[in-house]
Amino acid sequence: MALTQLDPNTALIVVDLQKGIVGASMLHPIGEVIARASALAERFRELRLPVVLVNVAGSAPGRTERPPRHTTPFPADWTDLIPELNRQPHDIVVTKRTWGAFASTDLETRLKAREVTQVVVAGVATGTGVESTARQAYEQGFNVTLAVDAMTDTRPDAHQYSITNVFPRLGETGTSADIIRLLDARTP
């Protein structure tokens, strides 16, 4: 589905753009993804719409067939949000220990307290943190928009599968420029 509209009270959720992750080898140049996510955040702030900055500080405790990637403690600054996001005091910051930003956090409560009905999701990794956050938002009743040029993954097949097969079932997709155009069209 193509991007059609944004609700009056839409929040931006930027997933896992943090020091310990952005240095990984990604499918798309991470600098471009960061620039687009940062532009979205600035426009949302200018319009006094909520900006949610999410970092990950661990993983769910369940047993899996694949061993965890990190078996040693993270470096001290691993969870620090990247400075390009220009974190502001009124931003909502969520630290998660699962793939999605809603599971085991108070994000849903915080957004609903602000009467948010729609979320725009960007960040890394497309097939894990972004997709899980979008799925959880959809399951909690939020309208979902995915900024497909403001996300990337270390796995090309996971990125493409999410964009092609999963995201159209969860909401609408568009570029960061499309989203900013819709935001600008709402302002007098």
Task: Explain how this protein is built.
It is a single chain. The chain has 188 residues and is an alpha/beta fold. It has one domain (10-59, 77-186): 3-Layer(aba) Sandwich (Rossmann fold). The chain is 36% helix and 20% strand. It contains 6 helices and 6 strands, in the order E-H-H-E-E-H-E-H-E-H-E-H. Strands 3-2-1-4-5-6 form a 6-stranded parallel β-sheet. The longest helix is centred in the first third of the chain and has 17 residues, at 30-46. The protein is globular, with a radius of gyration of 15 Å. The protein starts with 9 loop residues before the first strand and ends with a helix. The model has no long low-confidence stretch (mean pLDDT 90).
Total domains, how many? 1
Major sheet: arrangement of strands:
3-2-1-4-5-6
In the CATH hierarchy, the architecture is 3-Layer(aba) Sandwich
Structural class: alpha/beta
The string of secondary-structure elements, in order, is EHHEEHEHEHEH
CA-CA gap between termini: 27 Å
Determine Rg (CA atoms, Å).
Answer: 15 Å
Major beta sheet, specifics? 6 strands, parallel
Strand portion: 15-25%
Principal-axes geometry comes out as globular
Mean pLDDT equals: 90
Number of strands: 6
Low-confidence stretches: none
- What would CATH call the class? Alpha Beta
Helix content: 25-40%
> Going by CATH, what is the homologous superfamily?
Isochorismatase-like
InterPro entries: Isochorismatase-like_dom, Isochorismatase-like_hydrls, Isochorismatase-like_sf
Protein name: Isochorismatase family protein
Organism: Bradyrhizobium ontarionense
Keywords: Hydrolase
